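Blackboard transcription, Thursday session:
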Amino acid sequence: MSEVKKPEMTKKAGKEKDNSIRVVGNPPVVKAQAQQSEIQIQIGRQLRTVYDDVLNQPIPDRFMELLQKLDTSKK
Amino acid sequence: MTNEPQKPDVADSSSIKADMIAAIPSLRAFAVSLSGNADRADDLVQETLVKAWSHLSSFQAGTNLSAWLFTILRNVYYSEYRKRRREVADSDGAFAAQLSQPAAQNDHMDFLDFTAAMQKLPPDQREAIILVGASGLSYEEAAAVCSCAVGTMKSRVNRGRNRLAELLSSSPAAQKIIAKAG
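(Written on the board underneath:)
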């Protein structure tokens, strides 16, 4: 007997939310989305692999020498 | 960024030098990711350090030195990039060979495919996904480094990631991933 909730009540007047924008040419298929997100995960991993590998390498001597030289040549 | 009291612009050179040394690993990582070539990356870093040193007076003490150096590095990269635009990216594996632990094999995306695809991206998108996706900068910080709006940075990251996915989707390794995810 309770009143049926009207969907309109939860809707802001005149405001249509559009979450449906998708990349053109990418059919809205769940499977395709799963594939895409798996690819994105791999992309993120590859990016960090390259970056972190170099980040963790010791600083080459050439840069220590360079800064030493710059520092002493100043003043 | 810092709680030091206001000081004259130029910090003393030995502390700057120490900060620069501390920034070198991330500069190199940025440069390698950006240029896709380890030798060239170190030349970029070298030039960045020299430039930075000669423009120390324009660095505001107390602000983020790494961000400042990143900005210089990308400027150096772009002025070179314009000169070398037609140069073919490293495709013979020389870059991969220089990495201490040749990246992800087998099930993962082929590393050379990935490096090649990165180099096919427009450079603004490439740097955006590196700064945000690998350097761990916030969108705001990355936008500051590239002197663009935060919204612009976000859209570059999105477009870059989509384009990369597109480029990589055709590679055999990615097909395997797709088969698995499907």
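Lecturer's comment: Chain B touches chain A through 48 residues (CB under 8 Å).
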